[in-house]
Amino acid sequence: MAKLLNPLGSGQASGSIMGLTYAYWRGRGIVRRKSQPVRRLRTTQPWIRSLIGYLSRQYQLLLEAERLLWKAYADAHPRLDVFGNAYTMTPAQAFTAINHVGINIAGSILQTTPPMAVVPATIATLTAEPTLVAGELDVAWTFEGVGEADDFVEIKLSRPILSASKKMLPEDLPFNAAVAGNLLTKSITGLVSGAVYWVAARYVDEFGQTTAWHMAYGSPL
Fold first, then answer.
1. pTM as predicted
2. What does the alpha-carbon distance between residue 50 and residue 65 come to, in Å, rounded to a whole number?
3. Predicted confidence (pLDDT) per residue in 14-30, tens digit
């Protein structure tokens, strides 16, 4: 319970009430409030956690020959970390990464052996331009190779920010949409006019194999 010195004048308060903490710091009165955790049941986090847990259990059930195939796949498909440096996944990481994307984005079934197909396309350029409609961005891309209808282009979108100088990483952006792999554009509506949005996109084949992210930014009218 908060206590007041000179309550009519509210000269000084200390203690907590209704989630607020009143205190003195460096000679001045301050009010603090603890940050509220995200209500995870309203996000995709429970699904993602359950899927990763499921894949971890399924990897433990693989035969040794299947694990050797995943090791060979991991060795042949290095990934880039957030700093752009290449690294080699473990067999378990490769199994989880491919199946996570395959199930979550492409809707494929569990793959106990790695895919043999080569990803048919990768994104070469990406743009995010305002349209004549308020709060709308037209996201467009080009391919190296030929996109296929059975595959996908995964798109992520940042929250509205004030300036593009605040560079973001694809891993920091929430999922926005997955469109058919033979399409070259996606309109995103309901945005804040005048704000800046970072957009990330990558090609995902039907087995869950992905290409590198491309990023662009735009500001809707």
1. 0.76
2. 26
3. 777 766 777 767 667 77
Residue 180 CA to residue 221 CA, distance in Å, equals 27
**CA 121 centroid distance within chain:** 21
The sign of the CA dihedral 75, 205, 107, 200 is: positive
Q: Could you tell me the domains of the chain? A: 3-33 (no CATH), 42-106 (no CATH), 121-218 (2.60.40.10)
**Cβ–Cβ < 8 Å for 147, 182:** yes
State the Cα–Cα distance between residues 142 and 185, nearest whole angstrom: 9
pLDDT digits (tens, 9 = 90+) for 102-157: 998 888 899 999 999 999 999 999 999 999 999 999 999 999 999 999 999 999 99
